[in-house]
Amino acid sequence: MELPIKSKLIINFDDKIIADNIYRILIPEVRTTKSSKISMIKNNSSIDLYIETKTIPGLRAILNSYLRWINSCLEIFSWKEERSKTNKNKNAK
């Protein structure tokens, strides 16, 4: 009998809006992942990710994927914020 490998990842964000947006972005991934059991809960400015897999390499792969997606989102949000500030400064001149 295979025992499932379980993990809980809690990701805290500085901003509730960022947490909301990342949660909405990740929902389709949670719903379509077939190789593992994944659930996600949003609590104010944090996201709790629950993962259950059959193997340690499977757990590592899922964690890496979700962390990369979250990091990509944060980079895009940061880029967008910087671009917004630059445009405001150009318009103020």
Summarize the structure.
The chain has 93 residues and is of the alpha+beta class. It has helices at residues 16-32, 56-92; strands at residues 5-12, 37-43, 46-53.
Number of spatially distinct domains: 1
Based on CA inertia axes, which overall geometry fits? elongated
- Return residue spans where pLDDT drops below 50 for at least 5 consecutive residues: none
User: What fold name stands as the CATH topology?
Assistant: TATA-Binding Protein
Strand order of the largest sheet: 1-3-2
- In whole angstroms, the N-to-C terminal distance is 69 Å
Largest sheet: 3 strands, antiparallel
Give the class from helix and strand content and strand pairing.
alpha+beta
Instruction: Give the CATH superfamily.
Output: Alpha-D-phosphohexomutase, C-terminal domain
Total of DSSP H or I helical runs spanning 4+ residues: 2
Count of individual beta strands: 3
Percent of residues in β-strands: 15-25%
Order of helices and strands: EHEEH
Helix content: 55-70%
CATH architecture: 2-Layer Sandwich
The gyration radius over C-alpha positions equals 17 Å
What is the CATH C-level name? Alpha Beta
Overall mean pLDDT: 90
Can you characterise this structure?
- The protein is an alpha+beta fold and 93 residues long.
- The protein has a single domain, classed as 2-Layer Sandwich (TATA-Binding Protein).
- Helices cover 58% and strands 25% of the residues.
- It contains 2 helices and 3 strands; from the N terminus they run βαββα.
- It has helices spanning 16-32, 56-92; strands at 5-12, 37-43, 46-53.
- Strands 1-3-2 form a 3-stranded antiparallel sheet.
- Strand 2 (37-43) and strand 3 form a beta hairpin.
- It is elongated and about 65 Å long.
- The model has no long low-confidence stretch (mean pLDDT 90).
